[in-house]
Design goal:
InterPro entries: O-mannosyl-transferase_TMTC (IPR052346), TMTC_DUF1736 (IPR013618), TPR-like_helical_dom_sf (IPR011990), TPR_rpt (IPR019734)
Structural class: mainly alpha
Pathway: Protein modification; protein glycosylation
Strand order of the largest sheet: 1-4
Shape: elongated
Radius of gyration: 34 Å
Number of strands: 4
Membrane topology: Multi-pass membrane protein
Enzyme class: transferase
Number of helices: 33
Helix content: 55-70%
Distance between the termini: 108 Å
GO molecular function, one term: dolichyl-phosphate-mannose-protein mannosyltransferase activity
Strand content: under 5%
């Protein structure tokens, strides 16, 4: 549908565009830069953006990837697709009090498609898609910057003109190689930002198409305005920032299509001037289009609010300490300091970190803090730019500066803490979209300097040097994102006060078996943040394994005191108390853990072990049965049930449980071994032998498997095979209990048989 809204006093849109082409100053005129045809410019941008991040293609799943992808049940085929629309980004129900309320179903859907096509959790496919998305976005930026820097103009045939081919190429290159984008591209979870940016740009370009000339000579197409609104909604379903494109489309419409002078309009409003129509407010259907955009945005936000169902997410003080400050002054000062740090990351993206929380940036609590200078510098620059954007007599300068500031500030608003508390201090991923505004302002500044400079080559070489440095920085940072070890260690020099950095380095070392080094980093994490319960829990676990039970108990007791609903710490405390033979306290700790986490199979398993130690066999079997109900693949719980029933002489029941377990976990060799023992005692030798052999095939170096098979053959009367497996068992484990005695008995028996035979 085409909307025909001519104004008697307004010139025809086609005449406006041709007049613009004649009178608008050309930003490229004084710039010494590469002039390439549109196709080649896009190819260059695509190639360079690919080179920046190509070395991340074979990286691992790192940091948040574990929770958003590996542990997210929404990626698996057995989860109904409909659940994606009721779950958050991490796979939790939106209605849950623990949900982060990050509603990004389309991003999760792409992860699910990745998982299905790869046939499992293989990170290469996930990384390749992220790299392709960034290259595509960078290519689209050539068109977007040509409009933002050169204006929206069309030829007589309705083809959009690129009046700033050099500066739009430079701006697109600046965007493509900005190191702050590494988290979005090399970190798989960053796909939310990439998909959001893709549809964000498509929405903007779709809105621009609404003003393309057509044969009927109408002003604009309602169809393309509505398409733009729909694409904005799609962007928001990828990440929350996407909704801001509707506001930017309105700003673009007012400044570029209607050439609105904001200062003049404010003055007319203050003086109640009735000639607002002449000021451009009603020309070319501006109010109608803004009404469409606002109505679409309001509808999208209402639907999202209805889906979320509950209030905002509950974050903790360590996530965003400034937002928990009692003083409004302290909150305001620190929020502004965070803004200045985000601006610095755009200007000088050298110090990059995967996480900026937990003491990485200490709070400013007094005006005597020297960091106040950063706030002053930020607002000095912003006020200067805003003043020029509003008051400059050069309409071209007003338009570019306002668009640059708009693209810098508006997409950042959801992360600004102004409307709601966010769960981070600084997040490099959230400045992916605001960097568009930075690139506009940088490029415009470069064009102004080029106009004044006598030695334009030196200036061009300097900018080329910045691009080259950024490419190298991207490649280096991408390599750091390839593994958790490199990523976490890279943060130690950037945020040495960040307890989470030390915690993650320690966890990575512990996962690799280096407990001594892990203890050092866990202790430092607790020192930096004495309320860091997860660090206390992990440190307590390691100390428990090293039999340093007293300190382990102290740490775990402190953790549950700080966070009484910390189920994992309660369970680990129970394990320590059990080891200290304080059985009543251990039982109470286990039940407290289950109270706070109803579906906790590991806790039921440990509770069963406690009951087994106390000879409360029925309670132990019930606890292990609960563990297997909650987690049918819980091999240890199944095994303990079989062994307990076997040891208490309940062979028929042990056999039934063993068969049930193998039906659920058919390839578990430990279950085969346990059931084979039961069958052997029940004189079902043939079936027992088959299970022993299958278990040995799966795990040929288990001495006990060979030893118990030898016992079976010994009972069965197959003495040669018994001798063979006794010898294998002793070779694998020369001190295996009972094996040597049984082997000696067999040898004596064989010697007696030989004597009788002789």
């Amino acid at each position: 549908q085409i909307c025909n809204q001519h104004n008697a006093e307004a010139p025809n849109l086609e005449q406006v565009f041709h007049k613009m082409a004649q009178t608008e100053p050309n930003l490229d005129h004084d710039v010494l830069w590469f002039l390439l045809p549109s196709y080649w410019a896009k190819m260059v941008v695509a190639l360079i953006s690919f080179l920046c991040f190509a070395n991340s293609y074979d990286g691992d799943f790192v940091f948040d990837d574990s929770e958003a992808i590996i542990n997210n049940k929404d990626l698996r085929a057995e989860t109904p697709l409909g659940d994606l629309w009721h779950h958050d980004f991490w796979g939790s129900k939106l209605s849950s009090n623990t949900s982060h309320k990050s509603y990004r179903p389309l991003t999760v859907l792409t992860f699910r498609i990745n998982y299905l096509f790869a046939g499992g959790f293989y990170p290469v496919g996930f990384h390749v898609i992220n790299i392709i998305l960034h290259c595509t976005i960078s290519v689209l930026m050539v068109d977007v910057f040509s409009i933002l820097l050169g204006g929206l103009q069309f030829s007589n045939k309705g083809r959009r003109l690129n009046l700033a081919p050099k500066t739009s190429l430079l701006a697109a290159l600046l965007f493509a190689v900005h190191p702050v984008h590494t988290e979005c591209v090399a970190g798989i979870v960053g796909r939310a930002d990439l998909l959001c940016a893709l549809f964000f740009l498509l929405s903007f370009l779709g809105y621009c198409k609404a003003f393309r000339e057509n044969k009927d000579g109408h002003n604009f197409s309602i169809f393309w305005v509505l398409v733009s609104v729909i694409l904005g909604a799609v962007a928001m379903l990828c990440k929350e920032q996407g909704i801001t494109i509707l506001g930017l489309n309105a700003v673009f419409d007012a400044l570029v299509i209607n050439k609105l002078n904001v200062l003049e309009l404010i003055q007319k409003l203050l003086h109640k001037d009735k000639s607002l129509e002449n000021a451009g407010l009603l020309r070319k259907g501006l109010l109608f289009r803004i009404t469409l955009l606002m109505s679409g945005g309001a509808s999208i936000l209402y639907i999202r609010w209805r889906i979320m169902g509950t209030g905002p997410p509950a974050f903790t003080e360590v996530d965003n300490p400034a937002s928990f400050a009692d003083s409004l002054f302290v909150r305001a000062i620190n929020y502004n300091y965070y803004y200045s740090l985000n601006a610095w990351l755009l200007l000088c993206p050298w110090w990059l970190c995967f996480d900026w929380s937990m003491g990485c940036i200490p709070l400013i609590k007094s005006v005597s803090d020297w960091r106040i200078i950063a706030l002053a510098a930020l607002w000095f620059c912003l006020i200067g730019l805003i003043g020029q954007a509003l008051c400059s007599e050069d309409s071209h300068k007003r338009r570019i500066l306002t668009l640059g500031l708009g693209f810098l500030i508006i997409p950042f608003l959801p992360a600004s803490n102004l409307f709601f508390r966010v769960g981070f201090v600084i997040a490099e991923r959230v400045i992916y979209l605001p960097s568009i505004g930075y690139c506009i302002l940088f490029t415009y500044g470069f064009s102004l300097l080029s106009k004044q400079a006598k030695k334009k080559k030196i200036l061009a070489v300097a900018v080329f040097g910045i691009l080259l440095i950024n490419v190298m920085r991207c490649a280096l940072r991408s390599s750091q994102w390839r593994s958790e070890e490199q990523l976490f260690r890279s943060a130690l020099s950037v945020c040495p006060l960040n307890a989470k950095v030390h915690y993650n380095v320690g966890k990575n070392l512990a996962d690799k078996g280096n407990q001594s080094a892990a203890i050092k980093y866990y202790r430092e994490a607790v020192r930096l943040n004495p309320k860091y319960v997860h660090a206390m829990n992990n440190l307590g676990n390691i100390l428990k394994e090293r039999n340093e039970l007293q300190e382990a108990e102290e740490l775990l007791s402190l953790a549950v005191q700080i966070q009484p609903d910390f189920a994992a710490a309660w369970m680990n405390l129970g394990i320590v108390q059990n080891s200290l033979r304080r059985f009543e306290e251990a039982e109470q700790s286990y039940w407290t853990a289950i109270k706070h986490r109803k579906k906790y199979p590991d806790c039921y398993y440990n509770l069963g072990r406690l009951y087994a130690d106390l000879n409360r066999h029925i309670d132990a079997l019930n606890a292990w049965r609960n563990a297997t109900v909650l987690k049918p693949e819980h091999s240890l719980a199944w095994n303990n049930m079989i062994i307990l029933l076997d040891n208490t002489g309940n062979l028929a029941q042990a056999e039934a449980v063993g068969r049930e377990a193998l039906g659920l976990i058919p390839n578990d060799h430990s279950l085969m071994f346990s059931l084979a023992n039961v069958l052997g005692k029940s004189q079902k030798y043939k079936e027992s032998e088959a299970l022993f052999l299958k278990a040995i095939k799966a795990n040929p170096n288990a001495a006990s498997y060979h030893g118990n098979l030898a016992v079976l053959y010994h009972r069965w009367g197959n003495l040669d095979l018994a001798k063979k497996h006794y010898e294998v068992s002793l070779k694998l484990d020369p001190v295996a209990p009972g094996t040597k005695e049984n082997y000696n008995l067999l040898r004596r028996k064989l010697e007696q048989l030989q004597k009788k035979g002789g």
